[in-house]
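Practice problem: Hydroxymethylpyrimidine ABC transporter, substrate-binding component
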Amino acid sequence: MDNRKTASKAMRKAAGMAALAAAMALSACGSNGGNEGGSANGAAPSPSGSATAAPEASAPPAELAKVTQVTNWFAQPEHGGQYAALAKDFYKEAGLDMTIQSGGPGISSTQIVASGKAEFGMGQADEILLARQNGIPLVAIAATFQKNPQGIMYHKGKYKDVSELNGHKVYVGSGVAFWEYLKRAYKLDGVEEMKYTGSLANFVDDPDSATQMYVTSEPYTMEQQGVAVDSFLNYDLGYKQYGNVLYTTEDYLKKHPDRVKAYVEASVKGWNYYRDNAEEINLVMQKSNPDLKLEAMAFGTKALEPLVYGGDAETNGVGYMSKDIWEGLQRQLVEIGLLTEAEPIDGVFTNEFLPSP
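Answer key — structure tokens:
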């Protein structure tokens, strides 16, 4: 890493003949060719005059680079790989002193990363494109979800096609990019749009309504309340974007490519660990988010498995991103008027720092 310091070796002086002392000093200087954390041994005379092994002073530990990543919500299975990398010291082993800062209501990870208060962030693919248009030069460096878990939830058996939502209430955030696409693609001009507040009470009370959701969480909430639901996944409806994309700024990537590589590789290692050790890491995350029950985490873990480890990740590994997917999403955002132009997509994302599958 560019920030690691090469440890200097202190030469030991031995009592005795001047010639032997000089020889020891030369040996100590040349025995460690800059190996971090290593130690070299030189022969030092014992009080009786016989030679014994006398180890040099231990090198100080390499300095870790302090970095922060901001997630897009409170700790939950959607962040499992990041917390696994932290809990199992994968970041530390890669030379990073990592802090995970939870997102939440009113917290903009893009603004925090752009301001330099955090080096890495997590968000949706469309957020990266929209941020760049607004003068925030973010670069996607890994996509932890091959398929975004966002979708539309409705009461079980009510709808077979998303176009049937016309004439009914849909609880959705104002100006949400995926909803603007769905309205245009499926001619949802007859939908009664209702403000999404995070509460599902109104949805439960109206069997004809629908609401935005994450397939990894809201269906579990409904299951606990005895409400049977189905859902449309936005990705399957044509709005193909990556979810929980890891990103940094162009400037940070240019100045610290080694740290970016270390971060990406440790994160991917964390996601691979989480796949087989979710229960262990869920306990870790619950300490950061005690309001989330382990049963809900178990549901989320199962729901996210095909979204994280399926698709292109099966052959190219966790985090892989396709140029076709990025270009398709960019084109859709231009068509619905959220992007004014399509910039060269090669500057938007990179697979350069991903480990070999």
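Discussion: The domain at 65-148+241-347 is CATH 3.40.190.10 (D-Maltodextrin-Binding Protein; domain 2). Students who identified this feature from the tokens alone can consider the problem solved.
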